[in-house]
Design brief:
- The structure is a single chain.
- The chain is an alpha/beta fold.
- The protein has a single domain, classed as 3-Layer(aba) Sandwich (Rossmann fold).
- It has 7 helices and 10 strands.
- The protein has helices spanning 48-55, 78-87, 104-114, 119-132, 148-160, 178-193, 205-208, and strands spanning 4-17, 20-33, 37-41, 63-68, 71-72, 89-93, 166-170, 197-201, 213-218, 221-227.
- Strands 6-7-8-3-9-10 form a 6-stranded mixed sheet, with helices on both faces. The chain has a 4-stranded antiparallel sheet with strand order 2-1-4-5, covered by helices on one side.
Length: 234
């Protein structure tokens, strides 16, 4: 019996654009198992980013049902959703979204500050997260002193410092050269092996082929959902 960490049932997301409603998602149904590695692909406007925002509790569906860890999140308050984002879900973005005024370790500690973790534990956990991504020698450097690949490693460390169950990555290699992209994808492979559910949006076929499952979208709907290898199989 699969343990689904994400369950979307007949989800629609509608935006009011003048007289005609714009359907970013149309009655979409999708389940993702705990520990799975899923790539979501589609052209611009296909709905993949909207889907990612809904899974990450950054947006709410217009209609349908979303169960996260078997809990219906549709009617949760903004504060409750923020708490889920901070403890259950880690985010990795194409442009890193690091604060330039802070060192790497200070950026990584931010989710722990919001979670109310004391300073000593924040430091210990942030150091460990940076060690996991191979940046223990750079933790006191600011983003401007780091390469693009190193900045993305900081972003990943920040995403995993709260030990999330799900890691969402939106075009995580889009701003990187091919060699650095390969290094970053190897990190995602390691995180999947550790049991984290990884869901990434990408237009890059090579990146998608690192996943265990590829979901393709068009016009707000899923057009194919293919498992290309079993979970935990490289």
């Amino acid at each position: 019996m699969p343990n689904n960490v994400v369950e979307l049932h007949d989800i629609s997301r509608v935006y009011e654009m003048g007289e005609e409603p714009l359907y970013a998602l149309k009655q979409l149904t999708l389940s993702i198992e705990d520990g799975d590695y899923v790539a979501i692909m589609g052209t611009s406007g296909s709905g993949k980013s909207t889907l990612m925002n809904l899974i990450g509790c950054l947006d709410r569906p217009t209609e349908g049902r979303y169960l996260l860890n078997h809990k219906d999140v549709f009617h949760l308050s903004d504060d409750e959703l923020a708490a889920i984002r901070n403890t259950t879900i880690g985010f990795v973005f194409q442009q890193f979204n690091l604060l330039s005024s802070m060192t790497a370790i200070e950026n990584v500690m931010l989710p722990l500050v919001y979670a109310g973790v004391d300073k000593e534990q924040r430091t210990i956990r942030a150091q460990f997260a940076l060690q996991q991504v191979g940046l223990e020698q750079r933790m006191y450097h600011r983003p401007t002193q780091l390469s693009g690949g190193q900045q993305q490693r900081v972003s990943i460390a920040r995403a995993i410092v709260n030990k999330p169950r799900i890691l969402l990555a939106d075009e995580p290699t889009g701003a990187l050269d091919s060699h650095t992209a390969e290094e970053i994808m190897a990190l995602f492979d390691d995180l999947v092996e550790q049991g984290i559910t990884v869901i990434l949006v990408t237009h890059d076929g090579e990146v998608a082929n690192r996943a265990s499952r590829i979901v393709r979208m068009r016009d707000g709907q899923i057009t194919s959902d293919s498992r290309i290898r079993s979970k935990n199989e490289k």
